Fold this protein.
Amino acid sequence: MKKLLLLLLVVFLGSFSSQAKEIVARVVFENRTDEQLTSGEFFIIELNKTIQINSEEDFNIILPEKGKYCFSFISTKFDAYTYYPAKISQKNNQITIRLQEKGKAFQYSKEKNSYSFSMKNVKAKRDQLYFIFNGINNTPIDFENFKEKYGVGMRTENCVVDPFTLKETIQHNKAIVEYLNEKFGDQWLEDLPAQPFGIK
């Protein structure tokens, strides 16, 4: 009887601790303009998740566990800056999105960070035939077979992503998808070892 009671206690505590791993994080907006937010996209990079936003109303997100995450927000009407703790936990769980008037904050050099390119000149940019992954990658992705077969590799970039870089990363990855679709149809999708950010 004692063994059965002990077993039930262990199972109960094990299931309780697995449920307790989820973290609820709060996303809040700080609008420093006179305009109202009507549309935008909130990204959780490690989870490859996009949430459509259509108001400045605060909201909660559920993360699988405490730890390091990268978040970003893009809006066509604002320059947006995302601030959050280095490690998200139950106590340290607020993500702040600051909205600034477009063009009034930092000026980005499009030449330095530009990854967008047309299908016409993809062949001329052989050194850029790679998918870009942002974030911390604890499990290395084996892209060797994919690169050998299709000529496209991967590159991991910094976890901290400003809205401009995020947009350029998505454009770059979409251009690579177009290139692969044009050259190989959709057969390459079956061999893709990981989902690049911004690709559905």
